[in-house]
Amino acid sequence: MTIKSTLLQVRKQFTNNWFRMLLASGGILIGVWAIAITTSLSLSLADTIITAINSQPGATQISLSRSSEGKTDFQELEFDSEFSPISIAEVEDIVAGSDTIIESYPTVDVATYITGPENQESCYTQNQNVITQLNTGTIKPEEAQKIQEDFRLKCPTATIDFQPLSLAVKADQNKWVGQKFDLSAGEVAVCFECNPNTPLYKIFAANNPSDLLGQTITIDFTKPPTVYKLGEGISNTFIEEEQEIFPEPNQIELTIRAVFDDRDQETNVFQGQGNNTFYGTTNLIQTAISPVSDLNLETAGFQTFSLKTDSFDNTAKTIEDLQDKGYLAGSGALSLIQAIQYFFYGVSAVLGLFGFIALIASMFGIINVMTISVLKRKKEIGILKALGARGKDIFNIFILESSLLGFIGWAAGILTTYICLLLSSWAFDQFVLSNEDWKQNLQNLNIGSFEPVLYWWVAAITLALALIITIISGLAPSLRAAKQNPVDVLR
Amino acid sequence: MSLDTIIKIVFNQLRKKWGRTLLSALGIMIGVWAILSTVSLSQGLSDKVIVAVNSQSLVRLVQFYKTTPQIKSFEDLTVDTQFISERYSSLKNTAESIPEVTSYNPSDTMSIYLHHEGFSPKCVDSNVEQIILAESGEEDKANEQQAILDDQCYSIGTLLQPFDLFLANNSSNWYGSQKEPQAGEIALCYQCDAENPLNEALGADIPEDLIGKTVTLEYSAAPTSTEAGNEVDLTNAAVSTSNIKQSVPREYTITGVYDDRQESLDLASTFLNSFAYLNYSEYVKALEQNDDTINTGNVGYIEFNAFIDSFEDLDEVVETIRDKDFLVISVGQILTSSIKTAFLVLTIALGIFAAIALIAAVFGIINVMTISVLERQKEIGILKSLGSSNGDIFWIFLLESMILGFLGWIFGVLLTWGTNAGISGIFNTFLLNNSEIKDNLATLNITDFNLVIPWYILALTLALAVIFTTLSGLVPSWNAAKQNPTEVLRSE
Amino acid sequence: MSQPLIECRELTKFYGSKKQPIKALGPVNFSIAAGSYTVILGKSGSGKSTLLNLLAGLDKPTDGEILIEGKDITKLSQKRLARYRSEIGIIFQFYNLLPNLNTIENILMGGWAGGSHPDYNKAKELLANLGIAHREKANITTLSGGEKQRVAIARSLISDPQILFCDEPTGALDTKNEEQVKEILEFLNKQGITIIMVTHNEEFVNNADQVIFLKDGLIQPFTKTTEESHTPPKPPTPPKPPTPPLPKVPLPKEPAKKPALPHDAKHPGHGSSKTVINV
Q1: Subunits with at least 3 CB pairs below 8 A relative to chain B?
Q2: Could you tell me which of B473, B479, B347, B476 has the C-alpha nearest to residue B406?
Q3: Looking at the partner chain, which of B385, B390, B484 has a beta carbon nearest the beta carbon of C90?
Q4: For residue range B248-288, what is the model confidence (pLDDT) as tens digits?
Q5: Are B402 and B468 in a shared domain?
Q6: So what's the architecture of C6-88+161-229 in CATH?
Q7: B308, B252, B311: which is closest to B276 by C-alpha?
Q8: Closest-CA distance of chain B to residue A24, Å
Q9: Within 10 Å of residue A422's Cβ, how many Cβ atoms?
Q10: N or C, where is chain A less crowded by C-beta within 10 Å?
């Protein structure tokens, strides 16, 4: 039989029995739709979440350390891993040598007391006194508690972050007043409230953030920051509270150059900052360690540095480069993104499995229909054979029919999926974006719409599955038709 | 037409075209199997997780508090809720009135110094001296004193909780008496601090060596309890410990030791590792030593603990204590209900997905029924000529599709039993060959994994299968019934 | 008998669409007496089969009335119409037996289809009387044409019908079987069953009490070589004396001992003491 006549037979069958054919491919439609829509929605959801993550400052932030054991991935670390301190100079070299890193600063814990414009007795000293009295039993615990409460009102605490001011301001542009470029020595950027229970502005009797600009603030370090000697190892298990005590109070006066209005602030998880954050220059570290150590900024090493890349696209590559150089580098945001990807891949796989099972279920219906079809067309087959068609030709006709069923089902399934995806995008616009609050929040996360995508490989895989299933279903009936003896029919 | 005639005709048809019947039923089978398997797995997992959780001794702990305003359960907690410290006698009365409670104690902590052998000065005094030296700038002397202190005095914490809980948390590594230490007795951790092991300080090579030994002990910091009737805001609770003013070294006999060197899988024990256990009366003594004006009868505690026999009694005990106007928090209850809810949601979601396979199979049924009607036009005409009504014809076809659904369901159930048995078998065999994992799971009370089909899902899938197939047979059956017999009776 | 068994008034049947209706029958008016032997004669396309279908309740007319014992069956619900069909008998040219049932089951189905529970022994008796007792459990595809028609007749008789409709009953049979069927029908008529037969074979007219001759859907006067047939109905004929046993049909039992078909002890007498429509 010629190809043309084969196709003619198939076409006739479909046009004459279009309803039956449609029903037969219905099961395939369901299976394909199930697989396609679950995959598309979950992967698109993952993408949306990842876009949100990448909109946050954390997406351009890299943590840099050095492991004594040469490990380069934070996930490889164990509880007792050792680190090797890195100096500021070394990191500056790295930044200079990289075209994607724009800033760096040490991640150091420097907590201070804030004493305000009047030079009171050093908060640090006050605190020490209470501790001593308690330890020696001079005062009862209840008294100590009372003193502590008063103390907290008079001496609120703040943490100093060494992130360059220009970067900090960029993250929350409209909340900052004052200077926008990096600070110099002796300058500080403060939070306006810092702690709702013990607000900073109260100490200064200020009404607006701008009132604080130019004023002097006195700080008292609560304890020396943790710096290490270059070349010596840092062990994580040794988290002993080394109560290093300053021999004498070390109050420092700083000029306020910028103020962050944090009055309605909620903590932003990805920025990893609390509310009571000051920004200062690294020479404050020097000031803080000098009373207790002879290390200085050149000889001191830090456990971790924060690096800032120019765009979140470059974060992954930058981390790789750093790891190649032997550093321990990682990004919380990136790890989160990876985790989310794995999670959603997993979810798609499981849900897609159900769609696959649906395809299997529809298989039986197709075998049934094909078998009946063969039985009904006994006469037609007999005539064709009498006219010279070979068994192979008959086989081709029927197998082509069943694969066509698969194809039609697949096409219908993909079309349905596509419509559903459009609908979900529309529904998102209608119901989610219509709410102004949500719209604004989402925009802050760089999410303007939800446009799920039907990936080409999903369409390809489902096509392959549909065809395989329908061809397998059609095998037995087609073989039966091919083997039919024409004599039976043409009596 | 009478019902038995209809049934006879339907079964005749199903039997004659058995191949078709089988294929149709197989499609439904897959759909039913998908739903049943998913639910079996999900529920099985849920049950095992709950068993594991309930194997933890922490689940048998019930904590209760007096609050103002008076609330009964965890969900009612607000920022304004204040906790009131209650007398010990209140705890005692409540706990002893409930037979299922095996032991009880308020929550409290205290630090102690254990003297190494032969050290005569008091540790507490030694410590105070060290602090004074340090404060006055005598660094070297202070360091000297500190070194002596480290050498001769071992500092550990003690934990007050129901002794049975303490015991349960460490039962796999317990040596010595399993009775609660009385006044003058102490139960200890063997190592306590990996950096500075107690057993080395006491010169014991094996845990058993410590049993019966006597140690000299001083309270080093006062317990955290407060005066009864005080309101405490937990968010601001400054756990301030002050050193004991007077210290009286006393001898204590070690009655029990637990080997805390290995990690155990009992989750609670990883948190509570490495504490010593002293009787409640010792805490009272410590309070008296610290402040001889204190009225120990008026000492109050914020948190009371009751430990029960078995977690099956948990709900009942919680209710009983609630009736006595306490706020009761049971970690066991909270965990179990969260897990159940989470898995229920998961089961429902996955079950709905599995139902998609059933829908796919239904298309095949519609098709087959349609074809069947077309094929049997003559039969329909004949029956009508013999006196069958439209209704009879309708039921002949509809019943056929209903039975297909039922058949498919039966196959589905059988197949699920098969795969469930298979999965259970594989898991159980795996367990048999992997003694390490087996032992680990055994500590969680998980000994086997047997999948079961919950009865409600059997009923649900039956309903679904029959409903779907019936619906799919509706239109073809209706068409068959409406048929005009005249044309078909004339032809050959 | 005060009223005729069957009466038709202005009976009409149209096929096709509203735009292009095709008239198959009518309007026709006639009546048929109980116990009579009526032949509906005509060529193919004359509307005779249409008329039979309407009389047998297999189809509904476009217009007109069909009164069976005074009740208009055209107004009946489909359920009641089905009931009517279960109480009459009908045989077809191509037998229309159910291929998935065997002989005796086919006969019993005549009752089952209408919801009744016919006696198994009665079916066996019918088989015996028709000379096909040996074919009781046979697959009907193995039966000859004559045997099939006899099964069909037995089936039609299982519910003791008062009317037996026949649509070209001998059209597919050879001469010998045709004769047999003819005799059976005459026998049944003598037992009191009203026979209404559709045929194009004029020979059947000889036995008929009444001939309804259709041409292009309308009743025409019938002229045959030997007899005249009028549209007006003939008066009912007096009961004929019992005929001797039919020699060509092998009857295993003695005619005297054989209870008359379809009468049995419950229905003594001759003629239609039973009403056709129990609705």
Answers
A1: A, C
A2: B473
A3: B385
A4: 888 899 999 988 876 544 444 444 458 899 999 888 888 87
A5: yes
A6: 3-Layer(aba) Sandwich (3.40)
A7: B252
A8: 6
A9: 12
A10: C
